[in-house]
Each structure stands twice: as C-alpha cells, then as structure tokens.
Amino acid sequence: MLTVLRTPTDQGAPTQAELARATGLAHATVSNIVRDLTAAGVLETEPSSGRRGSAVRLAPGAGVVAGVDFGHSHVAVAVGDLTGRVLAEEWVTAEPSGHAADLARAASILERIDPGAGPLRHVGLGLPAPVVNNVVRSSAIFPGWEGVDAAAATEAVFGAAAHVENDANLGALAEHRQGQGRGHSASVFVKMGSGVGAGIMINDELFQGADGTAGEIGHLTVDEQGPMCRCGSRGCLETYTSSEHLLRLLGPQLPVGSFAEVVVAANDGNVAARRVIEDAGLRLGWALGAVVNLLNPGIVILGGATPQAGELLLEPTRTGLRRHALDSVTDTPIVISALGDRASMVGAVQLAAEHTELVHAGR
Prior knowledge:
Blueprint: H1 16-23, H2 27-39, E1 43-47, E2 54-58, E3 64-70, E4 74-80, E5 86-93, H3 99-113, E6 120-127, E7 131-132, E8 135-136, H4 150-158, E9 161-166, H5 167-178, E10 187-192, E11 196-202, E12 205-207, H6 238-241, H7 243-250, H8 259-267, H9 271-295, E13 299-304, H10 311-324, E14 334-336, H11 343-354
Helix pairs in contact: 1-2, 3-4, 5-11, 8-9, 9-10
C-alpha cells in the first residue's frame, strides 16, 4: 500500500506525522507501513530538517511501473515511480498490427527508456475500445484486439502484473489526479479523436458501470435521422464530432491531412473550417447537457484531437450546453485538458501505481 506517499506536500519528502494527517490514518498505522516498506527496500527515511520526525521517500531501486497508451495511429509508453510520477516517456507513430506485435513494440520502447530504477512492478494499459473483464469487446477502432484477454497478454510480454482500461477512463484518472480535475470529487473527461468516449470520476474514483463500459458518450443519439454510425445506430455524437468525420466533411472545400491543419485554417479565417468546428461544438454541448443533468460533475474536461481548436470549439459547446441543460448546471465549467495528448499515457502510469501493493517486508 503506497497511499501514504501519493499525498503531496509543499516541503518535499513528507514526515510520518504529515502523512498521518493527510491520509487520516493513525500514526501507528503509518509507522507500521513505513517500517514494512523500508524493510522491503521500497522506502527510506532520514531526519527531516526543521520538522519533527523522519522524512519518508521512495528508496533508490524501489521499482517502477509502466504505462502504455495505444491509439489509432500511435503507441505511447512511459515509466513512472511507485507514486505515479512519470520518469521517462516516448511517443511513436504506429498503426495497429494486432495485439502480439503491438505489445512487442511497446515492450521494446520500454526497454529503451527504462531509467534502471528497480524492477518493473506493474503495467497500466490503455486501449481505444470497450474493455470488459480485461477482454476487448470491439475492434471497430483498434483491430487485432477483439476477444483478447489484454491483461493476460500484457503480463506474458512484460513479465509483470497488468491492469487494462479504456483510454478515456485513463484520461479521466490522470486529469483528476494531476490536471484540470483536481479539487473536484466528480468530473467528466471527454476524449475526442477518431472516436469519442468519456471517462467519469465520482467520489474521486473511476465510475465504470456494471460491466466496465460506462462513458460511451460518443454513441448518444443527437439526431435519429443522422448518419449511420459504426455502432449500427444513426446520428450518434461521434458521427458529428470525431476528427475523422470533420476531415471528411471538409474534404471537398479544404483537403487537409490532419485536424491540426483544420484548426490552422479556422484561425486563419477559413469559413468552412470554422463552421464545421462550430457545428461540432453545438452537438457536443447538446450531449453534454444530458451528461451534466444526470451526473452534475464539477467540471467537464475535453481531450484528444478535436479540442485542439480551443475557444473555437469551447464557445459553441457552452452554447449547446446552455440550450440543453437545466439552469442549475448550465454554468458547469468546460475546459481543455491540461495534459493534452499525454493524458491517457499519464493515466496508465497512475493506474499501474495505484494497483501496486507492497505491504509486507520480503514481498
């Protein structure tokens, strides 16, 4: 249990007394945890300058965790310490090649960036697909993984325990712990790229639903006569707001290769580019109206490719929210992710750290 070290202080390494106050644990409990983890080589203590008691920090060689974020066209790998702090990372452009090849590529990246701070304790894996009991349920965005027990496959390649999550859930976790969601017990993170999904934090924990698929905001119907969606329904939010959809819409007027180019054109005054972003924002606000009516989050955070448009997207999104939400929640803040494209990767590291249990000496 490393809860005691995941509580930040303003004065560097915390003392045992500060950890007890911050976590609400009894002094004796904290003392026992620190003693056991020190004996196991995970923690070390030293006299604290100007404060009563010993300062507690991770020991050199305590071990590391890894975070792997697979996307439609990338793999991002990070190494973190046992508190979830990222130590090294690398982002590689790559198309999905099937789970075996994808995991082998990620393991190769990890070997290259590993800072040598001890054994690998845990791996957090993020996938752009619904994950139920570690099994990927759809390959519509990420082919080669459907039906795979992703945790077992990851453990076999990396030689360490693994936890698997949808990438939007990991973005929500990262923003809640380290980004825009800090200070809010309830928050919603919406990841908008080639697909659209959401991660939901309630009472400072991920809300996953009965089967682990909560947050599929991209498949809320915003027009039942709208375009056919990959899920088989019509008029889903994703068919109006994903980066791929917006690029297709603009093709005849503005043939560009990436959504970043659309944003540049919009900022340069291109009318078509500005219009598709505005329309996407209005549809997004419509869907978020339902979300904030149901969940009443303290903040909504937008991440992924589409929110690169900034205020060009945020202004119509807020307008759409005001039109479709109750008066009591229309002022719910809607902001851009603080972690940007790194959110899911940082969340994967955080997931691995929070599932690392080292409670007894000798483990």
